Amino acid sequence: MNNSTLRIKLKQRLNKLDSNDFDNIEDWQVLEAFNKAQVEWVRRQLHGNNLYKEGDESSKRRIDDLQVLLVELSLTGLQTDKYFETDNFPKEDYLEYKRISTDAKNSCCEYARSMTVYLAEEANVELILRDPLKNPSFDWGETFCTIIGNQVRIYRQEDFDIVSPVLTYYRQPGLVEFKDVINPYTNIQSPTDVECEFKDDIVEVILDETASIIAGDIDNFNQYKREQQSAERNN
Asked: Shortest CA distance to 28 belongs to which of 5, 7, 2?
């Protein structure tokens, strides 16, 4: 959906029929509200805090809606006696962890083998390492990882090394920008339009969410409730 259509639709949601009551809302305010609505919508779908209680990949619709935000990052870092610790965790656009895939190699095998990596709680690391059924095992092709201080630790035993780890994660949705309008996030005037990356049907839902945010900001309770309910019904 192009940005001109986006602005027209938003004004239509906010203005009373045949009136221009809310035409004084500035473009930078529209940008801030829409980009906020994007993040709120994505977080709600990932967590399953929506009308259908569907989290990420729990239905074909959620897979289809959110796949545009899934990205992979090859991880680099240092190998210690207990774990492989990354040094390039994504900070700018990181939203939510999805999975870690990695290979492992030891002195007995000519080729690296694929490992299954489970995400574990940092508090349970010592318990897992002491448990013979859960600790890292090259023979079983299983290990675990934790996330701490914007670093991923993939645990290992002394008989194998972690090689070629890849992090799959959900990134933040891209910010929408209007040409010649100051971006409230960067305080820089945008040289060109940047359109929403989601499909048009999702943009329609996010527009209702945007209208709800703006209506709440201007203390229009009736409009706030109407748009909020509309956004939820169409998820």
From this structure: 7
> In the prediction, which pLDDT does 221 show?
55
Q: What is d(CA 128, CA 124) in angstroms, rounded to the nearest whole number?
A: 6
pTM reported for the whole predicted model = 0.85
For position 122, what pLDDT does the model report?
94
Q: What is the CA radius of gyration of the chain?
A: 23
Number of C-beta neighbours around residue 111 at 10 A: 6
**Which residues in the chain belong to E strands, given as ranges?**
70-74, 77-79, 83-86, 94-105, 113-119, 142-148, 151-155, 161-171
Cα separation of the two ends of the chain: 18
